[in-house]
Amino acid sequence: MQAELSDPLLEESLSGHPLLGRMPPDQRELLLERSRIRELGPAEAICREGFTPTAWFVLLEGQARITRTRPDGAQEVLALLLPGALFGAVGLLCGERRSATAAALETARVLEIPAELLHAESDDLSPRLALELREILALSLTAQLRTMNRRLVRLGRKLLGESPSEEREPEPLSGWQLPPR
Amino acid sequence: MNDVTFPTRQFLRLVPTARRLATEDLSVLLSYLIPAQVPPGAVLFVNGEEPDAAYLIVTGEVRVVRDLPGGETVTLARLGRGDVVGDMGLIDGTPRTATAQVATELSALRLDVSAYRRLKADAHPAADWLLQEIDRRLALRIRTMFDRISRVREEPGLAAAVPEIVDSERPWYARVWPLGAR
């Protein structure tokens, strides 16, 4: 289902998002004009494993889950997503089919951002919007990698018998410690 | 900008996707990349330092290492020709979380954080290409990481620990934006 996008409350709310909130307001408005909002029911797929990616997403409300099919046919959970999560960009950026399925766990809303917005040369778009979105993706992917690295190091320490109090890894991008624009 | 720029043809062999850049934009990019020769045993950066640059390896090997309790180190990655080291710090400005040691004589191209920010502020086409390239490389690393986690699940002694990697705490974005778009 596609919802009405002319929602001033959404624009105001997105200005508080840790990554989309960094965009200049005119670029965020352009992003909303060029994107669409999807409303999903419980267990409804947002994007599916094996398909060619044409968009990436921001979870606005509700929770979602990323799963993929193991060689034996079983489903494995790769990530649980809360409102604010950016997802669905990995296959797009690798130039490959989707390696996982994202589905709502409950009633949810997502912002679906078309892939072509990442290409400054694709139409009459401001080159600034493509640059803004590319940087937002880079920040999001970096935070995701840092989180995974941090958890793997913590797991390794735990397996080595080190106590949790020796945790030294800061959470990525915590406390709005984002780089200057 | 530096006085001696890296040869264009060599750069295109090293990073073929840069062919998308117009000749003049590629020249601007190369003018920001500083050739560096670093001897074996030296470090490019140390865990905990503020990030100052990223490096594209032309020749040589860099090992990304972490200290372990008891004074041991573990090698997290071995990087060689065409690989980039230090790009995450370039993007988010967060202190280094590992040390980059030069294993064999290194020839690299260094991009300073200040140069990256200048290109971005100018919305230069070279900044757009640079971010496309960094996004692509980060995405490939995430895909590799998920594959590794899948393999961990198959290890009898480690499978129980996987939920801790996938879902052990509230994610950073949810703490910053706790209510979502409500």
Write a brief structural summary.
The complex is a heterodimer of chains A (181) and B (182). Chain A has helices at 8-14, 25-34, 90-94, 127-159; strands at 36-40, 45-47, 55-61, 64-69, 75-81, 86-87, 101-104, 108-114. Chain A has 181 residues and is α+β, with helices and mostly antiparallel strands.
Helix content of chain B: 25-40%
Q: In CATH, what is the homologous superfamily of chain A?
A: Jelly Rolls
Summarize model confidence as the mean pLDDT of chain B: 88
Report the CATH C-level class of the domain at 35-161 in chain B.
Mainly Beta
How helix-rich are the residues of chain A, as a percent range?
A: 25-40%
Query: Radius of gyration of chain B over alpha carbons?
Result: 19 Å
Number of strands of chain B: 6
The largest beta-sheet of chain A arranges its strands as 1-8-3-6
CATH architecture descriptor name of chain A: Sandwich
Strand content of chain A: 15-25%
Structure annotation, total helices of chain B:
7
CATH topology of the domain at 35-161 in chain B: Jelly Rolls
Distance between the termini of chain B: 47 Å
The biggest sheet of chain B, with number of strands, parallel, antiparallel or mixed sense and barrel status, is: 6 strands, antiparallel
Question: Which key phrases capture this entry?
Answer:
heterodimer; A: 181 residues; Jelly Rolls; four-stranded antiparallel sheet; 23% strand; disordered N terminus; B: 182 residues; six-stranded antiparallel sheet; 6 strands; 39% helix; 25% strand
